[in-house]
Amino acid sequence: YSRPLTASPSTSNAIDNLWLLGSWDDKNERDREIISRLCGAPYQEATKELHASLDRGLFRLAGSTWTIRDRIGALSSIGTHLTGSALQILATSFGEIIASIDEQYSLPEDKRLSADLLNISRGCSGEARRGAASCCACLSNHRELVPNCTDEDVDSFVSAVLSALFNTDDWRILASADEVMPLLAEASPSMYLASVNRALKKHRAIPDYLGEHLTGLSSTCMGGGLISGIKVCARQKDLLSNAMTLLVGISPYTELSK
Q1: pLDDT digits (tens, 9 = 90+) for 180-198
Q2: How far apart are CA 78 and CA 64, in angstroms?
Q3: How far apart are CA 127 and CA 142, in angstroms?
Q4: Contact 47/41 with Cβ under 8 angstroms?
Q5: Positive or negative CA dihedral for 192, 194, 198, 204?
Q6: Phi and psi of 31, rounded to 5°?
Q7: Of 134, 158, 133, 122, which Cα lies nearest the Cα of 25?
Q8: pTM score, two decimals?
Q9: Reduced to 3 states, what is the DSSP secondary structure of residue 125?
């Protein structure tokens, strides 16, 4: 469902980037850093126009959390501004958001529940991670809204974000992004399966991630997001076999962690 926007398209590339990200947390230091870089201005200046236009209904500000109300509508408004080179630049920042490490996963399992009480970096907020992943899915599934970008441009954008996540030996990156993996699978089921399969062959991150427990008080193992993403891919008949093969391939690591 997509309702009409009540704000006119911005002519500012900086504001366009905020529309594309779509959600973040004012209080999160990493979010503010990356938004400042995306906009080429200090954070307060970068978001000044958004504050001034809250009554137009494009964004909702609840506490410290910004959320775009209509992502598809926003893309239809600014899609003609986007080019392949702009997407390439955006992919670097979005990959950084999704692959940022929540340092709770540097703690022993029995200490992770108290991570909010400790002075440690949690990486980018969950809102920013969801925003970046949602943008990937929206762009990939509504390519008609970005007429100045080729299919190759969009695929390259999604591929760069997936590479930032899966081309790693650090399981903490995967754990930190667990929640948004199904959204990334929606962006490109075939590339998601290929990225997971490649990572499984080249790195230890996936086995290590699947071997961890959510907290010291839980017997639940990590990997729910990764597995849900594979199941998203399995909805496509031509990918079902590959998805099932991959689920079988990771099953020994989930079994060993029980």
Answers
A1: 999 999 999 999 999 999 9
A2: 25
A3: 22
A4: no
A5: positive
A6: -60, -50
A7: 122
A8: 0.90
A9: coil
